[in-house]
Amino acid sequence: MKYKLVVSFLLALLVAVPVVAQQDTTLADTSAAAMLPAPATMVQAKDADNDHGHAIDVTWELSADDGQGAGTVLSYEIYRSESPDGPFEQRGLVPSQKNSYTDIGSRDRESPDYFPDYIDFYYRVDAVAADSADRALSEVFGPVHSYGQWFNTGRIPVMVGVLIFAILTILFVTIAKKGRELYVRPLAGIDAVDDAIGRATEMGKPILYVLGLGTADQIATIASFTILGRVAKRVAEYHTKVIVPCYDPIVMTVAQEIVKSAYLDAGRPDEYSDDIVYFVTQSQFAYVAAVNGTMLRELPATNIYMGKFYAESLILAETGAVAGSIQISGTDEIAQIPFFIVACDYTLIGEELYAASAYLGREPVLLGSLKAQDYAKAAIIVLAIVGIVAANFGWTYFTELFQVVD
After folding, report:
1. Which of 48, 72, 89, 169 is positioned for an S-S bond with 372, CB 3.0–4.6 A?
2. For residue 164, which phi and psi values (nearest 5 degrees)?
3. What's this model's pTM, rounded to 2 decimal places?
4. How many Cα atoms occupy the beta-carbon half-sphere of 94 within 13 Å?
5. Helix or strand holding residue 80 (H, E)
6. Consecutive H or E run containing 123
7. Domain 185-360, what fold?
8. Contact 305, 224 (CB under 8 A)
9. How far apart are CA 168 and CA 166, in angstroms?
10. How far apart are CA 180 and CA 196, in angstroms?
């Protein structure tokens, strides 16, 4: 009887041990599963808007354990593959509480990070807890591919502005070509040019014209060429001498042709000489010293400074004042304008230098573009005032019309 009891106990023990072991394993599995974070859901991917391609936007719904729970999500890892079954490569990492990522690659085919357009990709987002091994994989989304857009819709306000300005320019250029007079606000400095040339003629003294230190491709120098042509033509008509010392050899060549054409237009080509326009040096202060010496030797009745000027502006203007010359200046270098204002009789400020070329030349294209700019500036001022009022009163619809997105 005792033996039977012992055998029964041993058999019961053998049966109970696997059951207990199975229960312990189940509890361990349940505990491990409880530590894994909830996965990110609603993963979506689409081509990035308003770009040149080679980029895909990935979005998802945050994990339920993002910021809470035992398996708190600390970050999201974004993976990409050319097949829904993998293999997947990591493309990015974002912190918790963020649910978007833009997968951007290189446009260079030789780059290891080259991102091809029109190739199907599949994306997966892993919710990663404190231990990087504790992660939950989302469902795979795809296929999706990238491609470049023809037009950036975020810049529609810019397109509208460009079209309106182009229409205004074409309209005013057409009006000017038909011979209609376009009003341009008189510029005192330009109106004084004729008086200054007349003064030089009466005094029997020359006119000194300085083109500045700019090169022939700079806008200020180009505008100065137009003014030089007008001055040279008047000088030829009045039989007055003009002196044009040049800092740049290319500028000198262009200036010679302009002055020569002006003398031809005035009907006195025989009075033109290449010595009128000459090259000095490309050393800044050596050039200034040479021009100052010319001022003090020739004592010109009028000094005209038009173009690009730098630190030499005040030296030139002060020397001209000592020589007793009437001085007319103009530059688009903002830092030099105050010196010209205090030392010269007339100064063209900033873009007035550009307007002067249209004012003097009366070319239809120049006049038309100048009038278009004036109307465009007036429109911008009005819209800015209305925008300030709209922003203060919370009229967001109006301000959003002019919002530009890169």
Report:
1. 169
2. -65, -45
3. 0.64
4. 19
5. strand 75-81
6. strand 121-128
7. Rossmann fold (3.40.50)
8. no
9. 5
10. 29
Domains 41-144 and 185-360 share a fold: no
Running DSSP on this structure, what letter comes out for residue 166? H
Q: List the domain boundaries for the chain.
A: 41-144, 152-181+363-406, 185-360
Sheet holding 55-61, edge to edge: 41-47, 55-61, 100-104
Q: What is the CATH number of domain 41-144?
A: 2.60.40.10
List Cβ neighbours of 78 (8 Å cut-off, separation of 6 or more): 58, 90, 91, 92, 93, 94, 101, 103, 123, 124, 125
Per-residue pLDDT of the chain (406 residues; tens, 9 = 90+): 545 544 455 555 554 444 444 444 443 444 444 567 889 999 999 999 888 889 999 999 998 888 665 558 889 999 999 999 889 999 999 998 899 999 999 888 888 889 999 999 999 999 998 766 778 899 999 899 999 888 888 888 888 889 999 999 999 899 888 888 888 777 788 888 888 888 888 898 999 999 999 999 998 999 899 889 989 998 999 888 999 999 999 999 999 999 999 999 888 888 898 889 999 999 999 999 999 999 999 999 999 999 999 999 999 999 999 999 999 999 989 899 999 999 999 998 888 888 887 777 677 888 888 888 888 889 999 999 998 998 888 888 887 888 776 6
Tell me if residue 115 falls in helix, strand or coil. Answer: coil
Per-residue tokens: 388 = 């300030």
Q: Are 157 and 403 in contact (CB under 8 A)?
A: yes
